[in-house]
Design goal:
Blueprint: E1 3-6, E2 9-10, H1 23-30, E3 39-40, E4 64-67, H2 82-90, E5 96-101, E6 122-127, H3 131-142, E7 148-153, H4 163-166, E8 173-177, E9 187-188, H5 189-202, E10 205-210, E11 214-217, E12 220-223
Parallel strand pairs: 1-4, 4-5, 5-6, 6-7, 7-8, 8-10, 9-11
Antiparallel strand pairs: 2-3, 11-12
C-alpha cells in the first residue's frame, strides 16, 4: 500500500514524557521555527482532494495517508479547522487515514456527527510510550467507537506491558520505535521483544518501525545516525 503524509496543521505542545526530544521540535528548531505554534497549512490543507495537471488525484486510491504526524489531530487550536478536515476525509473513502494522538480524552467530543461506530477508512493510534501513559490512555481508546485501533509505543522509554489491553481483542496493531535525534534515550531490544511476544500471543499485528539513535541489543549499545528531516 502506497504511503503519503498529510499535515492539515503543524505544531504541537509537549504533554508527555515521550515529547521530551520530539523530532518536530528538533527539526523546526534547526529552521528557527517555533513548533509550539500551531498553524493551519496554507498549501496542503486540502491535499487529499488535490489533483495534478492531468486531473488525477495526487493521493491515489489505496493510499495509506499518515495524518497529523507533525502535530496532534486533536489538539485544541485545531478545533475550528477539524470539521473541515473531517469533510475532506469523508470525500476519500478510498484512502486509509492513520491518525496518531496523545490526546485520546479529546477524541469523543471532536468526532464528526455522522461518525456512528466509526469510519472504515480511519485508524486512530494512541501513543503509550511508558507504562503510566499506557494505563492512562489505552482504557480510553478501548471505550471509543473506532473501527481500527492502533497503539504506538514510540518512543519506547521502558519495558511496557500491553497484555491487559491486547487481550481484549480490540487493538488491531502495535507499532514500536526508538527515539531519534539529539538526546535520544535508550531503546532496549528486550523491551521490543516483550511487546512482540504479547502481540503474537493475542494475535495482534506488530511493527518495529525504527531502532532510534540509541539502541541496545544483547548488552551492546549502538549509536545510529538519522537524517535531520521528517520521515
Amino acid at each position: 500500500m502506497p504511503r503519503y503524509q498529510w499535515n492539515p496543521w503543524h505544531g504541537c505542545h509537549k504533554c508527555s514524557p515521550g515529547c521530551l526530544n520530539c523530532y518536530v521540535f528538533y527539526c523546526d528548531g534547526k529552521r528557527q521555527k517555533d513548533a509550539d505554534m500551531v498553524t493551519r497549512s496554507k498549501t496542503n490543507f486540502n491535499l487529499p482532494l488535490k489533483k495534478d495537471r492531468a486531473g488525477n488525484l495526487k493521493i491515489p486510491p489505496g493510499t495509506e495517508l499518515a495524518t497529523g504526524f507533525t502535530t496532534d489531530f486533536f489538539i485544541e487550536e485545531a478545533d475550528l479547522w477539524r470539521p473541515e478536515a473531517w469533510d475532506i476525509i469523508r470525500c476519500r473513502p478510498d484512502v486509509r487515514f492513520l491518525i496518531p494522538t496523545k490526546r485520546p480524552a479529546r477524541i469523543r467530543e471532536h468526532l464528526p456527527p455522522d461518525w456512528g461506530d466509526g469510519w472504515e477508512n480511519i485508524a486512530i493510534a494512541v501513543t503509550a510510550e511508558c507504562q503510566a501513559k499506557a494505563d492512562e490512555r489505552l482504557p480510553i481508546l478501548l471505550n471509543l467507537p473506532i473501527k481500527h485501533k492502533f497503539v504506538f509505543v514510540a518512543p519506547i522509554l521502558e519495558d511496557v506491558s500491553l497484555s491487559e489491553y491486547l487481550s481484549t481483542g480490540k487493538i488491531e496493531q502495535v507499532s514500536v520505535g526508538g527515539e531519534s535525534y539529539a538526546g535520544a534515550r535508550t531503546c532496549d531490544f528486550d523491551w521490543v521483544r516483550h511487546i512482540y511476544e504479547d502481540c503474537v500471543r493475542f494475535g495482534v499485528a506488530f511493527d518495529f518501525h525504527q531502532t532510534g539513535s540509541n539502541f541496545v541489543k544483547d548488552g551492546r549499545r549502538y549509536k545510529i545516525r538519522h537524517h535531520d528531516e521528517y520521515g
